[in-house]
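Quick one:
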Amino acid sequence: MVGVIVLAAYRPSRELFTRQLASIRDQTVTDWECIISVDGELETVEEVVAEVAAGDERFRIVADGRRLGFYLNFERGLAAVPAETEWVALSDQDDFWYPDKLEKLLPYLSDSAIVSGQARLVSHPGDEVLGFTDRRQLDPASTMIVNQFTGSLCLFRRDLLTTALPFPRLSSHTVAHDHWLAVVGMAQGGGRIVDEVVQDYVQHSANVFGDPSRLRLGPIATLRRAWGNAVTFAVRYEGAASPSAMTRMLFWIYVGWRQLMAQTLLERDPRAARAIELDRLFGSGRRLPVTLGMLRRVRRTRAVPTPFVIAYVASWAAGWLIRGRRRTPTVAR
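Output:
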């Protein structure tokens, strides 16, 4: 099987980037191309690639000098994946893949559209072992609520990109390439969580998204954080911190993002039974009793903490308050 590894880079640490490129180069599966999509300046990336992969034509840099941000940088890298590719893996710039990561995960793509392993959580600096991820096998609706497919841990079939690209546009810190790809994968072939530790997942202050299991907030702190995010993004994307602007952003941060994914999936795959069902559950016609039932079910799996459920219900209420006046904020470039 011929595959592509898409690595998103932005001002990488030379030490960690060198280690990660070497861990990709040394995979026991060798039939792949690594597309490195560079956000902004190229110098460090070019230098490290020249040092680690000199003469290795499997490594290719994609860049145009623009600063797109994490979400759209991955989209740019995925858009460069050749049509004849069979599978795609995503990579962060500062993790460390174990040599047999691809070898362990690839067989599961024979009966699943997307697959994820587990990771050891390691701090940087210090290399302290913080624990391990605890990704769980969930159904498509539960995956829409709480994503279990961290991008750097997963592989997926290339044909998902026919539906997944371009990414849905929304200005919120909750837009996530891996969440969208997981939703598409679960709707178009299903997903598999494998209890194999396949890499180190580096946790440090520069992470755009760290491992969510490390967050331990109480209900009040969670609501404060949710409202604080609404204020921050209302000012940034709505131009004001008015009550109406903050209510709109509170909606888009939780429920609105999932509504956008469900509606986008249905628009691109209108005959798929799972796309129709996800739109019924999460689209603009969703109903609160159904939402509460799903939240209770996912809560019982221990995949989400109670504070998240509280924030999600608050976001649902915000959507009800602004019904009929929903304007999707466009993701900033």
